[in-house]
TrEMBL record:
NAD(+) binds at residues 124-129. Belongs to the transcriptional regulatory Rex family. It holds the Pfam family Put_DNA-bind_N. NCBIfam families: PRK05472.2-1, PRK05472.2-3, PRK05472.2-4, PRK05472.2-5. It comes from the Bacteria. It comes from Kineococcus gynurae. This is Redox-sensing transcriptional repressor Rex. The gene is rex.
């Protein structure tokens, strides 16, 4: 039997900002809620975790309010972007005071759904599965890892961060028993489609896929793929493009009347950017 344990660990949100689980749900008008969520641009949703991290850090430093400029700087986005994002959520702050950190944190966390203590199962408990099972960042965002699954006989039955690894044949029954709504795939690429199909058959509609393959799913299933190798490739490409642009500036017609040697270091780099893209 799988223990219903919260994986403990280092958290991003200070205790004062964490909502206990199960959390009291604020009564809302479901129709209004659905409309608000549907209207929220994906790019805004993608930045909400950055705002949450920044608010947590500000709360940890003892602050109770923050200006939009300071919050934007802490989150690494432009002020106009932050104000626009928060206006989608109906958060405008108070002139001269800014935003109340605890209130805004609760509002953003609620919009992202982490007040519901959403339950996560991980399929594939190898190197990555182990690391994910012990990742404190899930718990601090209100996600509970409630089930671990694998198909290797030497892995099934072992205990990882307090949870006993179950055979994938138990997935269907266990997902229902555990109330899991999110599945994390940490299996090899060749096994990912089958494992995904098993998750979907078990009733899971949200899948975080770490395997380096594109998964085929129905329209009612949401898959997010995390691929660190691709991110490295993109960084590498951008670095090459930056170097080429620097070279072009150094050797172009506006570079001066005297012929210049091509150089990759002559031109000053762009001003440091605060924006850090989330993988
Ligand atoms: N996205 C990323 O940035 C990133 C980083 C590291 C690894 N990965 C990917 O994550 C996956 C796991 O990597 P790893 O290093 O942990 O591999 P691993 O070999 O250590 O672990 C894979 C685990 O999956 C299990 N497994 C295989 N088929 C299964 C199935 N059908 N059902 C259930 N369990 C099954 C294996 O028994 C094993 O325990 C790979 O696809 C790898 O490419 C992605």
């Amino acid at each position: 039997m799988v223990d219903d344990a919260v994986v403990a660990g280092r958290g991003h949100a200070p205790a004062s900002l964490l909502t206990p689980d199960p959390a009291p749900r604020t009564p809302r008008d479901p129709a209004e809620d659905a409309a608000t969520l549907a209207d929220l641009p994906d790019a805004t949703v993608g930045r909400l975790p950055q705002y949450l991290d920044a608010l947590s850090a500000l709360a940890e430093s003892g602050r109770s309010t923050v200006s939009s400029d300071a919050l934007a700087a802490a989150a690494g986005v432009g002020s106009a972007t932050l104000r626009k994002d928060l206006s989608h959520l109906g958060s405008y702050g108070t002139r001269g005071v800014g935003y109340d950190i605890a209130t805004l944190h609760a509002q953003l966390a609620g919009r992202l759904g982490d007040r519901a203590g959403r339950r996560v199962v991980i399929v594939g408990i190898g190197n990555l599965g182990h690391a994910l099972a012990g990742y404190g960042g899930f718990a601090s965002r209100g996600f509970r890892v409630v089930g671990l699954f694998d198909d290797a006989p030497d892995v099934v039955g072992t205990v990882v961060t307090g949870l006993r690894v179950e055979p994938v044949s138990r997935l269907g029954a266990a997902v229902a028993e555990l109330g899991a709504t999110i599945g994390v795939l940490a299996v090899p690429g060749w096994a990912a489609q089958t494992a995904c199909d098993e998750l979907v058959a078990a009733g899971v509609r949200s899948v975080l896929n770490f395997a380096p393959v594109a998964l085929r799913v129905g329209a009612d299933v949401d898959v997010r793929r995390v691929d660190l190798a691709s991110e490295l490739q993109i960084l590498s490409f951008r670095s090459r493009r930056r170097d080429r642009a620097t070279e072009a500036v150094g050797s172009g017609p506006t570079a001066g009347s005297a012929p210049r040697a091509r150089s990759t270091v002559a031109a000053p780099g762009p001003a440091p950017r605060l924006v850090e893209e989330v993988v």
